[in-house]
Amino acid sequence: GSRNWAVWMDEALDRYDADALRYYLTVMMPETRDTDWAWDAFLARNNDELVATWGNLVNRSVSFANKNFEGKIPQPGLMTQGDVKLLAQIDVAFGPIGDLIGACHFKQALGEAMALARDVNKYFDENAPWFEIKKDKARTGTIMYVTLRAIDSLKILFAPFLPFTCQRLHRMLGYSGDLLGKQIVREYEEATRKHAALTYDYGGVTAQWKPSQLPVSQSLGPVAPLFEKLDEKIVEQERSKLGTSNVE
Fold first, then answer.
1. How many Cα atoms sit within 13 Å of 160 on the Cβ side?
2. Which regions of 2-158 does DSSP assign to beta strands (E)?
3. What are the pLDDT digits (tens) for 100-125?
4. 19: helix, strand or coil
5. What is the distance between the alpha carbons of residues 22 and 16, in angstroms, rounded to a whole number?
6. Which contiguous run of DSSP H or E holds residue 245?
7. Which of 182, 168, 186 is CA-nearest to residue 222?
8. Chain centroid to CA 225: how far?
9. In 128-191, where do the E strands start and end?
10. 184 SS3 class
């Protein structure tokens, strides 16, 4: 780094979730110049955005559906204007977010996806299915269908940035197979030498860059948190140890 210190990614990957590191590097990316790594910013982005916004939304909604709708995607009834608006807002985002990724504006694309996750959180809180279920189970089924379908679309929008957790979410929502392909190291032989190369296998890919058509009655998989909350102590720990490794 320009200030003569660096964060070594192989060491960071031993300690932290790959998707959390990918997320931080993308949102901090200036896209035109070097970027500085700040452990307190990494902690804040992980805890406030990945854990509190996106991970918490997934956890609360899939757990609620598991508990109250026999572990299946509920049947929606008539949708309100608010239901339709939320799903339409996410459906139309595939075009612009796809264009941003195509133009290598990764930071902006990820920001747009996280803004949508905040909107789904707001919808979930305002519709309060935990209260609604005491009055009207059918309406609650619609709220849950809309929420889970929105999450299913967000899974695709987030997948280029958060591939490992989106794959886990894919299974949590009851799908089988790989959302994305697999990276494989292959050995190639040439006339005079051999060399290893990192390649990508598309076989078994189930993801398509389009809005969710979430199947009603699909069985949900077991719920587990997508992201781990990080403790304030790591900031001091890393500053003294990994965060200030000198570059020779």
1. 18
2. 5-6
3. 999 999 999 999 999 999 999 999 99
4. helix
5. 10
6. strand 245-246
7. 168
8. 12
9. 182-189
10. strand
Q: How confident is the model at residue 221 (pLDDT cuts 50, 70, 90)?
A: very high
Q: C-alpha distances in angstroms, 215 versus 45, 90, 115, 158, 224? A: 33, 17, 25, 20, 21
Closest listed residue to residue 54, CA positions, set 113, 95, 13: 113
Sign (positive/negative) of CA torsion 130, 133, 137, 140?
A: negative
Q: How far apart are CA 231 and CA 178, in angstroms?
A: 32
pTM: 0.85
Q: Are 200 and 183 in contact (CB under 8 A)?
A: yes
Q: Within 10 A of 245 (CB to CB), how many other CB atoms are there?
A: 13
**CA–CA distance, 143 with 60 (Å, rounded to integer):** 13
